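Final report, results section. Input specification for complex C-07:
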Amino acid sequence: MRLSTKGEYASRAMLELSLHHEEKPLHIRDISKAQDIPERFLEQILLQLKRAGYLRSRKGPNGGYYLSKPPAEINVAEVIRVMDGPLAPIDCVSVTAHEVCPHESSCGLKGLWKEVRDAVAKIMETATFEELAERTRAARAGRRRGA
Amino acid sequence: MRLSTKGEYASRAMLELSLHHEEKPLHIRDISKAQDIPERFLEQILLQLKRAGYLRSRKGPNGGYYLSKPPAEINVAEVIRVMDGPLAPIDCVSVTAHEVCPHESSCGLKGLWKEVRDAVAKIMETATFEELAERTRAARAGRRRGA
DNA sequence: CAATAGTCGACTAACTCAATCGACTTAGTG
DNA sequence: CACTAAGTCGATTGAGTTAGTCGACTATTG
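Structure output:
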């Protein structure tokens, strides 16, 4: 039930971009440093997120990446699906990857996997980057006040 | 967020053993056929489950595998952890694999991963093989009555 | 003692993951 | 207009994991 590092990096990058939304575009390098992600690897990830429509970019000096819509309109589930595919623990209960389950005899399990899928999807679909950015800002402020 | 085939096979095998609990031990071959799992691969899986204490076995004719305790006392989470390790999407929120998270700046995400882990764990820990076997029997009976 | 059935460790082929590289295109600056 | 900063793109790689196989061994029963 592991998340790939790509998925993790992608959500961290999206969070970083959300924190700086409506400022200048962010360089790959800056995101890379802020979130400690290998630059060359991050490049691929951002490109993939751009192709999926979540990011826009500008080339040349003062270029960089920025969100294509407000962070409140992007949730974690979409991002993870772009990077890692369906959220379901096994394909036959996936909403995005339909597949017929040939194992009638183990249908007792199928219901369970469905529950898991739904729970995970619900949590991740509810979490917007707006909210995550807010949580992060609050955590940082708390730390500065000395907790 | 995928389950490994090993984890899936293991839970199917445990379900099959639960369905025949308190009868004769089941041969690897019979489980393999009933649940459509490669025999030689299943062998490894059963051995691993045995070493973890969930199964016992008897050699020789009329031998086979059987549960070491009633299906009501075994839940899916344990089985998956034996095969695939921690349920958590990333290590820093795992209960079983403790690791320090060096990314203060992305703590907004940590809370989310924790929610996911807890939700998954709760569902899988609640599901016993007794219950799953019951569901399976009901589904089969329903199918026989012609639904 | 022959046949059955689990045990064990080694092995491998295929695949995925994480990451790197080089060459290219585009955009702004002096 | 030349230079440089920055994103784009495709290919490749190395390590590790996964899924599965194999052969030789041990224990049990009839």
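Chain A touches chain B at residues 1-3, 8, 11-12, 15-16, 34-36, 76, 80, 84, 86-90, 102-109, 111-113, 115-116, 119-120, 123-124, 127, 132-136, 139-140, 143 (CB under 8 Å). The domain at 5-144 of chain A is CATH 1.10.10.10 (Arc Repressor Mutant, subunit A). This concludes the modelling results for the funded period.
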